[in-house]
Amino acid sequence: MSDIREASQVAFQEIRQPCVALSNIVFSKTSPLDPRSKELSDAVSQVYTSFAQVVSSLEKQHGEVYLTTTLADYVFVPLVDLFKAPQIGDRTLEKLLKILATLIRCCWRIAGSLPSQLGTNLLSLLSFLIGGPPSGQTRQKPSRSNEVIEADLECLKELFISIRTQTSAGIPNLLEDASTLPSFGYTVSVILDSLRDCQDVKVQIRALEALDVICDLFPKGDMLSMILPGCMSTFVKVVAQRNGVKVHYTALEAIIRLVTKILVFTCSDNNLGAFVKDFNLNSLEDLKDSSSELLKNHDTIEFIPEEKDHRTKEWLVKTSSQIDVAFNTILKLRNHDKQIVVEAIVELCGTLMARCHYSLNSLIPKLLDTLGKIYSKDEGNDYKTLETVVKTPNLEGFVLKRLDQWIGSLSAAFLFTDQERTYGIIKLISFACEIIKSWALTGTTSKTSITVLMQRLLITIQESLSNLVSRKKDSKPSITSIPQSIGTDMLITTQGYDGGDIDDISHQKPLFDGLLDSKCEDGLYLLLNLVTQLDPTLKVPEPTISESQSSKPVLLWMMRGLLCGAQIKPNALQDENWMFNDDEENHDVLVQERVYDLLEASGSLLSECLTEEASDSVARAQVASLKSIADACQYLGPDFQYELIDYLYPVVDCLTSPIEHVRYEAQRTTFQIAKICYDGSVKSLIFENYDYLIDSLSLNLTGHSITPRTPIVLMVLIKFGGKEILYQLSDVISTMFALLDMYHGYAVLCESFFSVFHEFVESVEKSYLEDYEFVKPDAEGDILRPWGMKTFDDLVKFLTHERDIPEMNDLTLEEVLDKPDSDDDDEEEEENTAESSPPQSEETTPWQSPIPKQLYFKIQQIWNYADRLSTHSSLRLRVLILTIMTRIVRLLSSSPHDFLPNLASSWHLVSSFILDVDKAKGTTPDPRLVILASDLGCQFLHYGGGFLTHRMLQFWSGLKTKQWFLDGTRALRHPKAHSAMDLYLQAMVAVSRFLFCSIQNLGVQIPENVAYEMIHMACIWVEKDPEKYGYFADTATLVQLENTTAIE
Fold this sequence. Notes:
Layout: H1 4-26, H2 38-62, H3 69-84, H4 90-106, H5 116-131, H6 146-168, H7 181-197, H8 201-217, H9 224-240, H10 249-267, H11 269-272, H12 313-330, H13 339-355, H14 364-375, H15 385-390, H16 396-408, H17 410-413, H18 419-440, H19 447-471, H20 486-494, H21 518-534, H22 551-566, H23 584-608, H24 616-636, H25 648-655, H26 660-677, H27 682-688, H28 690-700, H29 709-721, H30 730-743, H31 747-768, H32 792-800, H33 813-818, H34 825-830, H35 853-868, H36 875-892, H37 896-915, H38 927-944, H39 949-959, H40 963-973, H41 983-1002, H42 1008-1017, H43 1033-1047
């Protein structure tokens, strides 16, 4: 406010009456002063309230307010007697101190307004009120409330600010006067005691604010150096949070920033003078003699005036050792959960390294460690730790030395049970590398030193990880598929392909899972990226034959990490100061060389795994190789097509792995190749390379190299190759037929081959019969048009047709008997072998099936092999065979001329699986086979029609005599008495539907009495709608009525 006198008048008008009332009480001649009276307390409160309100009002109107010293005297006179009064209450004393703080701030702040004697008296008064008399080590502190202590410290802060204002105006510093030094020293001790002993955060903040202003009063640091030991001792005790007392984070932040200021003022290279540049304290081992003197509890601080600065080399040695010990506690705050505390630590480290580089160089390693550990946190970059170090000059030697030490501790770090400690070492090394990388951009580091350190780092990582892997006992990993279930393996193998998106694959697993946690592995990988950014020429040895299986994945993984870093072009590539400067073309050549080295090594390792049994080490090798191939594809782009022929089959083979994370990594790699080289189409990838894949498969379909995965690879090719690949599989399937001839006793081999056949049949059906419509035989018209006759004219033509009847005279009796009869179709058809070929009449008969003739007869061969192996001892194989044959019926029926012989030759499968007794069961057939055989029989009847009438009637004659069937009919009548999951009940339902299917498809060709038996015994219990029985609808209705009557 420009007019101090005017403001003082306004303030006087507001506080005059309360001050008069207070004076009347204090200076009353009628009654003695009672310090604890309510009347006095209310009067003081009224003065404080009025004074605070008027000052606040003036500040809102005019900003900072200054009042005359006359007004201060008017208010302060009655306060003096009250401060002298014994046993004054804490509430009254608090208000008095707040009034005093306002007086100091508004009346004794401007230059020349604070007399030296008044300042000295106030200093003594304020220290006495909360610290008691300065009686040395045995002084008794008065018991004061936190509010009183806070108000007292606020007064001291305001007093120090006023002294600073006087000093700034050229008035001699009151605190440097010899007569004031004892009081000042005692005041500092009282402030430190309040900071240490009081846990109230407001008190701690006020104490720290007062100390902060004191630092500003002695920027040269000579006086501060005398209170430095006591301050550091108190700060350590507060930070240590002893007795379980937690210090508020705002107080901790203020302590750290105050430590920074004090040390800069007392120990900065500029303030200490020229001698410090020759002072290099690289070790504290020489200071053991002074260790007993460290961090004594300085209850009082005494200032001894000297003509010259006492800060000598000896003083600095001792002080450095004290600070080093104190920092063991203070720097632990780097782990604090509050960001402002950590930011203060970062500022402390950076400031000391820059401004106390020579004087406190013994602390620099510790400060670097602290910054590195902060950097190791995930949020480390938020604190700008790297910028702090990079901007600090003359740290190259320290950083390289720490890096060397951290690399030396890395081997032991891999053995830590606490992976967080391991990660901490990794991040410390990364921190140093990032610093060097930033320096390298300005050409300030030595290339030779860095190359040596980086090479040592690579060797350490390689040896440590290889030892870690080799020590782990190899075991079989968890298999996600059902043992010996090729169909389930195929389902697991191909799931997730339809999306065609790499991001859909989320089941990835760390390469060193179980050895290192994912955070450590990722940290090491990023560290390898940094290595090649520092020196693009560095490499690791490629996997060789002499390398152990466990070390090869490690080397591959390291090569990937180095490649990833080498691809990053530094911003200073064109900077002449760049230590590894080279033109862009040479940079690309180096990277491309790494890519081809990585491809060669990964392809070799993946090929070695083709015939290996699944284990942890094999899985690790496969995953490392697959990731390497994906990375190489990413770098080479569309040019990877030229290299694909050497790596595609091993990748596809990994798609069939029983180990989940290997399979998903193979999917990721497959999608990567398809996305970059084939517009994201996996089908295009498979189809355009099917010739190579099929050749590789053929080579692997031999006795010594075939594995359980080989058939699944073939299934994958069929699934994604489409109809175009079907023709190319002829030789492969023929090879499989040959293997079945030799190894049909091996159930697993047969099952895997028939799973391939099932996939082949399904692909043919989808490719050629998806929109094909069959003409269903007319059950009721079949009897009117035997042998293909449809009209009466056809019948006349048949009767008048002359047949070539051989003359008996030209034949012997044996020849006549050996000549097959036209009705012996069944026997002739059953002699049909796997190598069946189209009849000669095909030369004149046009091909009717939409399926190409070559594929049709290949499917016919599959049918014949299935028929031959239907009696195999493996139940799983028989189930698979029945499933395949059920699907094949529709395909074969597309060529009626070739279909009926196969139908006749395989009818025995239906009858035998349903009628014959299962040896394992004793008296009944296996219900699982009965269900599938019934489904197959339905297909036979649906596509064969009346051709199977005679066989069906024979089947019924045998079925109705079987005891298990008779028992099953009773179960059909009372289904609630049986579990819905009862296999025998399900089998009976399937057989009944088979009988119902025969009635639907054969119609009038079934005798009336036979139809009645079928409906009465079985059919009516699974299909109750008479209209669905066609020609026998009336019979079904009759049976229903009979059953209803019987129930009633």
